[in-house]
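Per-residue structure
===
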Amino acid sequence: MTASIERVSIHGGHSGEFCNHAEDSLAAVVAAYIARGYAWVGLTEHMPPVNDTFCYPEEREAGLDAAQMRVRFARYVRTARRLQRIHAAELTLFVGMEVETYPGSIALARELAVEYELDYLLGSIHHVDAIPIDYNQAEYARAAAVAGGLTALYCRYFDQQYEMLVELAPAAVGHFDLIRIFDPDYTERLRNPEVWQRVVRNLTHMRDNGLILDVNLRALLKGAPDPYPCPSILHQAAELGLHVAPGDDSHGVDSVGACWAEGMAALQAAGVPLIWKRPA
């Protein structure tokens, strides 16, 4: 059933060359997309941090600071543009960037987008009130404690996401409901009226402004029962008529195209048309 669906990734292309928690070279990752029959792929390496405060432990352990990571990001763009040129006949590549959302990040994202003439931005949230929420369970718990509980944490997450959507207007939005990553009761939590009205508000804004919803399959690769976003949000997106596109969020050759069939089944179950809008 999935053989005739155009293979794409709106959120892909992390590599060990430019990301400390990924593997393989960017060239190898792109070659894997070509080998697996992809029509187009958005390369979305993480933006460099605003300052050293937002460097992750793995980056500090590698001896990197914010200035060095900005230099590395410039190398990423040069490498991605070269691959975009040499593989143009085999695969359409979009050279993008995954944006962070914390104090100072939106201004830096705008600056980088102009400086490097990026094809598009993928808006993501990995922090709530400057605390990382997907790095480990301890930091997630700390963010919840600061927010005043899990429901409050969800509300803060979706409020910060909305601010990012309004201020940055990215072409696509990555792993929309990442806030549920360490919450086994996320299905019930999302039903809370305070949380759900924020979900609908953000999705409606995306629909009204033509933004693309990343249907992120990496959660399935990690053993989660649902992709990002989960079924209730996918159903709402379908009802609203949002543009969607799958993203494998690949972090190396082995995760290119991972869980494609399961992701397509989830989209079909939610009634989402399997027709993808390009980011640029």
About this structure: Residues 8-270 form a domain with the TIM Barrel fold (CATH 3.20.20.140). The beta strands are 8-12, 40-46, 92-99, 120-123, 127-128, 131-132, 172-173, 212-216, 243-247. The chain has one domain: 8-270.
